[in-house]
Amino acid sequence: MLANAMAQPTLYVLPGSHPCAAVEAALALKGIDYRRVDLLPLVPVAVGPLRWGGTTVPGMRVDRQRVLGSRPIMRKLDELAADPPLLPAAGAPTRDVVLEAERWGDEVFQSVPRRILDVGFLRVPASMESYAGDAKMPLPRPMLRPGLPLTARLMARKNKATDDAARADIDALPRHLDQIETWIAAGVLGGETPNAADLQIGSTIRLLRTIADVRPLIDGRPAAALERYFPPMVGEIPAGTLPAEWFAGAGARAGAGTGAGTATQA
């Protein structure tokens, strides 16, 4: 139940969005009933400032309050339903490191699959539709398909997704996984009940694994276990979409990893 008998929240999402998935997992964990509004790509730029106070998703409205972004929404969810908490209690020795892992997952790691997906969509625009799953789109899917190539180009421009950027993200991925596995080894991530950082980072892991060319860099590593906090994800960038030479260096480093992880600075 919601604290203080507040109205049912409305959550604005893009189908396939990993920060939106993190918030939805938090809502499910707390047993909060909510109304979900599915949007088309780029629509948040036009309607977001009025509906939820920003141009990105997730956005949420609770009564007359507008909340923008996965981290502020998770703080709000802890206000609405205290149990189970998404953060350690104030003063707990692990609270600050969980907050830091959550920040890193949001500000650093979250953009990695976004750029790689965008360059994949530029190569295979039809794959974009697969991420919609059972979302209730505002227009029939056959009407949306002709616009997928243009949408892919606009999304890539918005996210500054270029071949060079995607290749750099792939090259850095083993180091990011090492950092995640450092937190897992320290007990910061990977508990029986997920915390906010688990959901922030796990949603990104889950999305990365839908990119078939990237999946071998993650499978078998301890970081892959963070996907267990989420239901199976629909959507895929098919194997062979991205050039094989992009993965030569990253694959060698991933294979040499110990699985325990080493701290990195991002």
Largest sheet: 4 strands, mixed
Decide which structural class fits the backbone.
Answer: alpha+beta
Q: Percent of residues in helical segments?
A: 40-55%
Counted beta strands: 4
Distance between the termini: 39 Å
Beta-strand residue percentage: 5-15%
Shape: globular
| N-to-C order of helices and strands | EHEHEEHHHHHHHHHH
* Poorly predicted runs: 258-266
Q: Which strands sit side by side, in order, in the main sheet?
A: 2-1-3-4
How large is the radius of gyration?
18 Å
Mean pLDDT: 91
**Helix count, DSSP H or I runs of 4 or more residues:** 12
Question: Which labels suit this protein?
Answer:
single chain; 266 residues; alpha+beta; 4 strands
Itemize the secondary structure elements and their pairings:
Blueprint: E1 10-13, H1 18-30, E2 35-38, H2 43-51, E3 59-62, E4 65-68, H3 70-80, H4 95-109, H5 111-123, H6 127-130, H7 141-144, H8 148-158, H9 163-185, H10 196-208, H11 215-218, H12 248-256
Parallel strand pairs: 1-2
Antiparallel strand pairs: 1-3, 3-4
Helix pairs in contact: 1-3, 1-10, 4-10, 5-8, 5-9, 9-12
